[in-house]
Amino acid sequence: MKRVWSIIICLSLIFAMVLTGCTSQGADVQTNSNKENETNNEFKAEMTFNGSSTLAPVITAIATEFIEENTTWDKVDSSFPDKYISIYVSAGGSGAGVKAVIEGTADFGMLAREVKSEELEKIGDAKVYKLGVDALTISINPENPLAQLRDNLTTEEVKKIFAGEYKYWDELDSSLPHREIVVVIRDLSGGAHEVFQKSVMGDTQIRPDAIQSPSMGALVTKIIENKDAIGYASYGMVNQNKGKLMPLKVDGVEPTEQTIVDGSYKISRPLIVVKRGELTAPQKAFMDVVMSEKGAEVIEEMGFVPVK
Amino acid sequence: MKTAFDKVSVFLVKVLTLFSLLLLSFIIIFIFKEGYTFFKEVPILKFITGTTWNPTGDPKKLSIFNIILGTLYVSIVAIVIALPIGIGCALLLSGYVKERPRLIIRGFIDIIAGIPSVIFGFIGLMVLVKFFEKAFGFASGESVLAGGILLAIMVLPYIISTCDETMDKLYRAYSPVAQAMGISKIYILRTIVLPQSLRGIAAAAVLAFGRAMGETMAVMMVIGNAPIMPKLLGKCQTIPSLIALEMGMAEVGSLHYHALFAAGFVLMAILLILNIALYYVKRSLDR
């Protein structure tokens, strides 16, 4: 009998918990819609960024500086209340950034690729801010004999290497040693690979046995560690590891700041922040800093090319 | 007073247990629900037996036979390496080491289990993979073997502690008689303890296998993540590393996104079967 009672009590408690869950959620939705109605009246002291792991350190750096300089919102603009500034940045990939904006779990989404039109549709009233450009360089280990031989590859050659048509270095040039080409890429569905696929590979498939690195750092490490490796290291990473990596020209165009910004170097991707709806006043204050000269400096420091 | 308190604690324990059960069922239902959307479009048999994984191609090819094989292969290699080492270590611990040093050594071995897997992965990438490239002249050291060796180190504590528990019990039961009869230690260990603890060893192997299959980070860093037919010295891809690698980038609600959940569901199904097997092995062990 006792047991029956305890089971009944347990069940009723769980039931009650479920019910409370429901009501509080309902209340949440209500307050949310209320908030939307009176955004101007209510001040939100925190904002959240989610998305590309390429862009996250940039926003974090700018945000840290912004917070250290001002601490509270009233120092940014005297019309704001004196609440502490909090800006949360989390990285989970470009796809996660768009997802967060669509689902409303973050205020801003960070992307290291163009926003797809179906994504724009899902967001609805989307605002897109282009902060800079990140270029992918076709990089090899400086000890690779190819480095002495030539500093240029044509798109066709790059394509053949990454597609696996050239399996050994001597197939590219007969004076090179007969050693296997080690192709290093990022994960196939990631932003970096998407850029590479679009601008170099076209419809050609990448060789299935290419090494998929879990991060750009791991990809660069692989090229630094392995003499036969070739991969698409980001421009920023090459700058941070000068001398340890050798970026090659593609079709005679060297990846430099100038060629990347004017678009003549073609393997590049934009760094974008998306937002649903109008910026609130504090969000605008922060985005102004991001888009300013100072923001551009940080972007450059991180190894990307700011858009002027 | 005391009885009232007792009743409250019993009640609290029951609620907490029920809560954890609910949590488990929620996870299973969630994964199944997300995966089910995928299985409606692609038949499960095609998903499991097809060999091409290409989420960006047109049309998308989403089949994980190679990846399932890779997961199993890496784990089997790990068990094959770790089992003899673990059994040897457990035999030594239960037969030759006195109680105090035994506890200390066990403590050190258990520390291995507490090292974060990303650290193992990093060591694997910088030492193991590099060693394969330098010593054997591989084009790239990322391989099933590298993943297997790394996992073997990681599952070793589980094997040792499970085996040691069984063997210690057996040795304690038989050693006074054996010593009275003047039989050497190694003879007892070899002829009585080892054959009698076969079931315990099997349980340890299954437990370690389950652990190895679910390991993500360390494996992801040393296997090259290429979804091809796995060979011992070639690259491969495992289900956890596939999910970790691609989940962040997959567009929400797309077929690719649901396929990753479906892969997770397959992994969970395999692990569930393994755990049921473990349960039966353990039950026959207790008899």
UniProtKB/TrEMBL annotation, chain A:
The keyword Coiled coil is annotated on this UniProt entry: no
Membrane topology term: Lipid-anchor
PBP domain residues: 47-293
InterPro entries found in the cross-reference section: PBP_domain, Phosphate_ABC_transporter
Subcellular location, record wording: Cell membrane
Domain of life the protein comes from: Bacteria
Statement: the UniProt record of this protein carries the keyword Cell membrane: no
Signal peptide start and end residues: 1-26
GO biological processes: phosphate ion transport
Keywords noted in UniProt: Lipoprotein, Palmitate, Phosphate transport, Signal, Transport
Pfam families given in the database record: PBP_like_2 (PF12849)
PROSITE patterns the UniProt entry points to: PROKAR_LIPOPROTEIN (PS51257)
Main location: membrane
Gene Ontology annotations for the cellular component aspect, listed alphabetically: plasma membrane
Assembly behavior: The complex is composed of two ATP-binding proteins (PstB), two transmembrane proteins (PstC and PstA) and a solute-binding protein (PstS).
Function: Part of the ABC transporter complex PstSACB involved in phosphate import.
Family from the record: Belongs to the PstS family.
Protein name: Phosphate ABC transporter substrate-binding protein, PhoT family
Organism for this UniProt entry: Lutispora thermophila DSM 19022
TrEMBL record, chain B:
Pfam annotation, one family: BPD_transp_1
GO molecular function: phosphate transmembrane transporter activity
Compartments where located: Cell membrane
Transmembrane domains' residue ranges: 12-32, 63-96, 108-129, 135-160, 200-223, 257-281
Domain ABC transmembrane type-1 as annotated: residue spans: 68-278
UniProt cross-references to NCBIfam families, sorted A to Z: phosphate_pstC
Stated family: Belongs to the binding-protein-dependent transport system permease family. CysTW subfamily.
Protein's recorded name: Phosphate transport system permease protein
The organism of origin for this protein: Lutispora thermophila DSM 19022
